[in-house]
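Exercise: predict the fold of this chain.
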Amino acid sequence: MSEDASAQVQTSDPLKTVADAMEHAVAAARDGAADAKARVDQALPGVNRFVSRFVYTTCYTVSYGVVFPSVLVARAIPKNNPIVHGLVDGAHAAGDMVDEMKKRKLEGAADEPAGSIAHS
């Protein structure tokens, strides 16, 4: 009977039980990580396809939604009337104003280093 008791003590060693449990946990984590990586590798092309298609469709819809009404309005306005002439003249005036502002900025930048050296 003492042999049976010693056999039970050896098989129910708490450290051995904890070591076995930890070994099983590590193996399960390793297998889980491998499974997760395989699933991600499987799902990634589908996600990439979805995102790509979503971006394409969104850009296409927005560009169509902007260009089509703009062209429709532009074609609806007759070319030889005061509104069109005013828009064209305003566009030219705005372009001239931007050119003048750029010219002033360049002249100011060219004058600045020479002025700062003279003051030093």
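Check your answer against the key: The longest helix spans residues 14-76.
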